[in-house]
TrEMBL record:
Membrane topology listed for this record: Multi-pass membrane protein
PROSITE patterns: G_PROTEIN_RECEP_F1_1 (PS00237), G_PROTEIN_RECEP_F1_2 (PS50262)
Keywords carried by this UniProt record: Cell membrane, G-protein coupled receptor, Glycoprotein, Membrane, Receptor, Transducer, Transmembrane, Transmembrane helix
Claim: Ribonucleoprotein is one of the keywords in the record: no
One GO CC annotation: plasma membrane
GO molecular function (one): thromboxane receptor activity
The name this protein goes by in its record: Thromboxane A2 receptor
Organism: Conger conger
Annotated InterPro entries: GPCR_Rhodpsn, GPCR_Rhodpsn_7TM, Prostanoid_rcpt, Thbox_rcpt
A GO BP annotation: inflammatory response
Subcellular location: Cell membrane
Keyword Transmembrane helix: yes
Transmembrane segments: 55-76, 88-107, 134-155, 183-203, 223-253, 274-297, 317-339
């Protein structure tokens, strides 16, 4: 406002005399104060966005590597010792998912850690370089792959539970490997779209990660790219939700009908796989839905109108979304580590033993108290 006032006074005033000097001084001071305020505001936002710095990034990366290796060893051991074809197909899908999560945690995590250590937090408006292009493509590729794999696993299990004969004739190891190759190829094609100028990758706030351009100077290609990425991700989660619901309801109804013992043993494997699929689906929904939804909100708002004061809000939403998404590779392995029949059986045995122990001690206490009361009554007589 001081600047505007100064330009008006200089055009209608007497000239650069003593009367215009105070206004010039005030104008320079106001501009300096505004610049300092903008820099300090940006510094505060950068420090908030990169809280924890390399230590947090390195810690989460280490946890993800350890958990994924443990889950991969468990799945590989189960795959080599299990001869059921339906179970082997599920374990092949699950092992591929864990390997993808492992690579998706190491590759982008290493690049983010390098940005933290080498350049700190560069300006979000920095032009994207090759590192940014590769990091953005990696995040899109390793973001879509787990969602596609979870969807394929849910469809395979739904077919195995509801149509076992059709599943036995259609699902083979060769077709499973072909399906895995198609999933990775589809995700790679989507990630490479910016190479054909269909969308773009850019540094995101606070400058330590790269993703699809969703804020500031967005074009129709950027909007289409975000719609494609988020649409594929949300569609995969929706299909997995429907298939897992159908599988779960079918297994519950089968249990209620009280089949023969052979069918019960066969259904126990299906129950274990469906429980793990539900765990994968819940984890993916919690971790990936915010980033998919926030990306859609940001790009549509940025393309339809200028973000203005809401720009910082959308930046923080994107940071929150990518932090939740990074936890998907850390939590996924725990689904296979904890939701196994051996672990669940031990937990059930521990809980039942405790209840039996309580019951036995209660019964012993009742018997001992009854005997002591009888002795006291006999002594009195």
């Amino acid at each position: 406002m001081f600047s505007m006032h100064h330009s008006n006074s200089s055009s209608h005033g007497p000239g650069p005399g003593l009367g215009s000097a105070p206004f010039t001084l005030l104008s320079n001071q106001s501009q300096g104060m505004a610049a300092v305020a903008a820099v300090s505001k940006r510094g505060n936002l950068t420090s908030e966005g990169s809280a924890g710095g390399p230590f947090v990034a390195g810690l989460s990366m280490t946890l993800g590597i350890v958990f994924n290796i443990v889950a991969l060893v468990i799945l590989a051991n189960a795959y080599t010792h299990h001869r059921r074809r339906s179970k082997a197909t599920f374990l092949l899908f699950a092992s591929s998912l864990v390997m993808t999560d492992f690579a998706g945690h190491v590759i982008p995590g290493t690049l983010v850690l390098r940005l933290y250590l080498c350049r700190g937090a560069p300006a979000p408006l920095s032009p994207p370089d090759r590192l940014c292009q590769f990091l953005g493509g990696s995040m899109v590729f390793f973001g879509l792959c787990p969602l596609f794999l979870g969807c394929a696993m849910a469809v395979e299990r739904c077919l195995g539970v509801t149509r076992p004969l059709l599943h036995a004739s259609l699902v083979t190891t060769t077709r499973t490997k072909l399906c895995l190759s198609s999933i990775w190829l589809l995700a790679l094609c989507v990630a490479l779209l910016p190479c054909f100028r269909l969308g773009a990758y850019t540094y995101q706030f606070p400058g330590t990660w790269c993703f699809i351009k969703v804020l500031e100077d967005t074009r129709q290609a950027d909007v289409a790219f975000v719609l494609l990425f988020s649409g594929l991700g949300l569609a995969s989660l929706s299909i997995a939700l429907v298939c897992n619901t159908v599988s779960g309801v079918t297994l519950v109804l089968a249990r209620l009908r009280k089949k023969s013992s052979t069918h019960r043993s066969a259904k126990s494997h299906d129950i274990e796989m469906v429980v793990q699929l539900v765990g994968i689906m819940v984890t993916s929904c919690i971790c990936w839905s915010p980033l998919l939804i926030f990306g859609l909100m940001s790009v549509t708002h940025s393309y339809s109108s200028s973000t203005g004061e809401d720009l910082e809000t959308y930046k923080m939403l994107m940071v929150m979304g990518v932090r939740l998404a990074s936890w998907n590779q850390i939590l996924d392995p725990w689904v296979y580590i904890l939701l196994r029949r051996a672990v669940l059986r031990k937990i059930c045995l521990m809980t039942t033993r405790r209840t039996d122990l309580r019951g036995s001690t209660f019964r012993r206490w009742e018997v001992s108290s009854l005997r002591s009361s009888e002795k006291k009554a006999a002594n009195k007589i």
